[in-house]
Write a structure and sequence with these properties.
It contains 19 helices and seven strands. The protein is α+β, with helices and mostly antiparallel strands and 534 residues long. A hairpin with a 2-residue loop joins strand 6 (515-521) and strand 7.
Length: 534
């Protein structure tokens, strides 16, 4: 921090010194130049006797001051402007004035140098040193200046009235002030160039940037409108063109206003809740595309509201179904516990009561575990170890382990893989759980004495597993509803299932970057699992 402050101080000191040095040396160079001009004028006319030594001394001094002024100007411009932490140059209120205005004012201030030179001429010829240097008496000098028309009318009385010191002070002050103002303009423009904002600070630049910005974000409509208006303005400069422009305005403006009013009315309708309202779209212009987009927004909002209503209904069903599935075993458990309390453990019915309580406890435990697993699968809070897995072998293993459950309902499973091997990118445990849930669903809800079909095939870069069976109960709900948690094919909810199997299978498949879908065609139920080929 101290290093930055020291660097900042050195830069400010260098800028201040170079600025003051430029003003002083430039002022001195101009005054010496005027002295030299006056000497050579009088010497060339033969009126005075100016020594070569004097003119050479003034000449060398003038060039030295001019060189010093140029060097100081370069340093002053280089050191002007303070860089901020973001690398931008700090600009003052003066630097934010349009550069065109600064240039115009700078030219006007430069023109004031003529007045400063006029004062310098009075100061020079009123100086005792100059009179001695040119070797001319004041009377002859006054006659010479008036006869040649220099200074319009020179009079020693004018010098005597103001006093030579005051006159000299005014001449030097005016010259220095002009150079200070010009340097201020130059430094301001230099700071804008350093900050790379000169073009954008100009009036023309701001107009171009504004037009460019509007054109970029207007889908070409801004450019089209600007072209039409500019061409219309150019055409209307003549009487014939004005007539053509008026005819075009009469033809097109009412049509555009009618389209605008239709869009405005449509927005009001949709805003008021009429989401099914459609703005008439006739054509393929900018306004027509805007109307079509507004219609799409209204349609999207209508779909979103319908989905929200559906979700609310499904949430209500979910709460109702969960309550029912939890309450049923708990009610049985409470009832048989009461019977045990009344009849005692020595009752001949006690073993049967305990068996039923144990059965309901197991069901409640299984329901709680499924609910917990469904919550984890839905949230994605399950570790997934993706690897190369052979799907056919896992399907065979699942069929072997669930063979007893399937046989209890006299369901014959026909497994016909259409591939010798089917390697997929999946998690072995999760894939096993998906296939197990599908086969368990078959064992619980398939029509007893029917066949179920399990197929494995390849579709493009996917391996597809299909499980098909005839439902025991009438499927009078949609596939989307059946996929929801705690939904079953039997609305009476007399089976032992939790209604979570399909939802868990879907969520686990999504975790493995696959897709899960079900299809209902009458009593035919088909579940499809697709995973990426390994």
């Amino acid at each position: 921090m101290d290093t930055k402050l020291k660097k900042y101080d050195r830069r400010r000191i260098a800028w201040l010194v170079s600025t003051l040095l430029f003003i002083a040396s430039a002022t001195a160079a101009v005054i010496l130049g005027m002295n030299l001009f006056a000497m050579y004028t009088i010497k060339g006319d033969g009126t005075g006797t100016v020594s070569g030594t004097t003119t050479n001394a003034v000449c060398f001094t003038m060039f030295g001051m001019a060189a010093l002024a140029v060097a100081a100007l370069v340093v002053s411009v280089m050191k002007c402007g303070i860089k901020q932490e973001d690398g931008r140059v700090r600009l003052t209120w003066f630097d934010k004035i349009f550069p065109e205005v600064q240039i115009i004012v700078g030219v006007c201030v430069g023109a004031a140098m003529l007045g400063a030179l006029y004062l310098q001429c009075f100061m020079i010829v009123g100086s005792s040193w100059f009179v001695k240097a040119v070797g001319v008496s004041r009377g002859n000098l006054e006659t010479f200046l008036n006869s040649r028309g220099y200074l319009f009318y020179y009079s020693q009385d004018a010098v005597n009235i103001l006093g030579w010191p005051i006159l000299a002070f005014l001449a030097v002050l005016m010259t220095a002030a002009i150079f200070a103002c010009e340097l201020l303009f130059v430094q301001s423009i230099a700071k804008m160039l350093k900050d790379r904002c000169f073009w954008s600070s100009t009036i023309i630049g701001k107009i171009c940037c504004y037009v460019s910005k509007k054109a970029k974000g207007s889908d070409n409509i801004f450019a089209k409108v600007m072209i039409v208006l500019i061409v219309g303005a150019l055409i209307s400069m003549t009487w014939v063109g004005a007539g053509v422009a008026i005819v075009l305005i009469i033809i097109f403006v009412p049509k555009w206003l009618a389209k605008y009013q239709a869009i405005k009315d449509g927005v009001s309708e949709i805003k008021g809740g009429s989401l099914d309202y459609k703005i008439p779209v006739d054509g393929d212009g900018e306004l027509e595309r805007l109307a079509a987009n507004i219609n799409d927004i209204g349609e999207s909002q209508s779909i979103a509201i319908q989905n929200e209503l559906k979700n609310q209904r499904l949430k209500t069903d979910l709460i109702s179904n969960v309550s029912h599935d939890l309450k049923t075993p708990l009610t049985s458990m409470v009832s048989y516990v009461d019977l045990l309390k009344k009849e005692g453990l020595d009752s001949e019915n006690a073993p049967e009561y305990l068996r039923i309580i144990d059965e309901k406890t197991s069901r409640l435990q299984k329901l709680t575990e499924d609910l917990f697993e469904a919550a984890k699968a839905s949230s994605g809070d399950i570790p997934v170890n993706m690897e190369r897995i052979e799907m056919i072998s896992i399907a065979n293993q699942a069929l072997a382990e669930l063979e007893e459950n399937l046989a209890q309902n006299n369901i014959d499973v026909v497994f016909t893989p259409k591939l010798e091997s089917a390697y997929v990118m999946a998690d072995g445990q999760l894939l096993w759980r998906v296939i197990e849930n599908l086969l368990t669903n078959v064992s619980k809800y398939a029509l007893p004495g029917s066949r179920a079909y399990v197929d494995i095939s390849q579709e493009s870069d996917k391996i597809r597993l299909e499980v098909k069976n005839m439902s025991r109960d009438q499927l009078n709900i949609s596939a989307d509803e059946l996929m929801e948690r705690f939904k079953r094919g039997d609305e009476s909810r007399n089976t032992e299932g939790s209604g979570l199997g399909l939802a868990i299978a879907r969520d686990l498949t999504n975790l493995m970057n696959g897709s899960f879908d079900i299809l209902i065609d009458g009593d035919l139920f088909k579940a499809t699992v697709e995973l990426n080929i390994a």
